Predict the structure of ATP/GTP-binding protein.
Amino acid sequence: MDFKSSDTITGPRTEDHLPHTAQAAAKIVIVGGFGVGKTTMVGSVSEIRPLTTEETMTQAGIGVDDNFGSKSKTATTVAMDFGRISITDELVLYLFGTPGQERFWFLWNGLFEGALGAVVLVDTRRLEVSFDVMGRLEERGVPFVVAVNDFPDAPRYAVGELRQALDLSEEIPIIRCDVRRRASSRDVLMTLMTFLHSLAMSGATAPGAASA
């Protein structure tokens, strides 16, 4: 087969190259129910062009997928989102966004493998979808923080109320965010890294949900 010069494979863009100062990397997963903003978060904070696996939603999903609060959403992640951010000159985070549709949750186990920690994105209009998400992380022993994505029409609750509603222990950080804003998404990741550091320093295991 003859290739034209325009067909030449040139590899990653210069801006996508790993910084030469990087000495350590960590895998972080972004999890949550359908439409909570996982793809948006990865895209807003990633310093490289993010990889997405979004597909157009079709009539086949009616009655199968719960798209409450996301009526205008026309695409959904079917495998994962991927991005990268340098926290310091030496530390790089690889971000993996999980699919939110319950029928794709079988992919989560592979995405959780080797993860240092996780961000659980929460929509206060649908707090109940977060329980299975957090339960899966606890089963795998993956420490996490909870980030409340402030949708314009979503009810706002005090942190104490959210902690009680989600049945979370006092140790697990809860932070509000707007995943459309890079600085806000980065603050969430910094909260997670601070939490992971505190666990490492104390020698504690990942805290789970509060005991009944």
